[in-house]
Design brief:
The chain contains one helix and eight strands; from the N terminus they run E-E-H-E-E-E-E-E-E. With 123 residues, it is mainly beta. Strand 5 and strand 6 form a beta hairpin.
Length: 123
């Protein structure tokens, strides 16, 4: 599983193929309000969702660029091709370009995320 090293800045970026994961490196995860504020500053409407431990999302893709933050728990995304595994934990951001085929498995404590969608030529 790929996980970026901890750092002193709040975010440190790493790119995995077309997907960008920006791990949270602060001492405590951001609040739900802070995560929503980041999305709104980017012109995106926050959409919250949650799943129980071990829930699975079958392979699929989206017609939009997804900007996702993990607020609680964890989720592992599997990005095709190559079955690249990316674990997202509280505060981490994932930018998933439209049309990127992926699946996901929720971690042992469940997960709660907020995301925004970018349509059109952006993303």
């Amino acid at each position: 599983m790929t996980r970026a090293p901890e750092g002193t800045a709040h975010y440190r970026s790493m790119t995995e193929r077309r997907v960008q994961v920006t791990p949270w490196a602060g001492s405590a995860p951001p609040s739900p309000e802070e995560l929503e504020a980041v999305l709104r500053c980017e012109g995106l409407e926050p959409h919250w969702w949650a799943n129980g431990p071990g829930d699975v999302y079958a392979p699929h893709e989206h017609p939009y660029h997804k900007v996702l933050f993990c607020a609680e728990g964890s989720i592992t995304f599997v990005v095709e091709p190559g079955n690249l595994k990316l674990e997202i934990r509280p505060g981490d951001r994932m930018d998933l370009p439209r049309g990127t085929r992926h699946s996901a498995v929720v971690g042992p404590r469940g997960v709660r995320c907020v995301e925004g969608w970018r349509y059109g030529s952006e993303g």
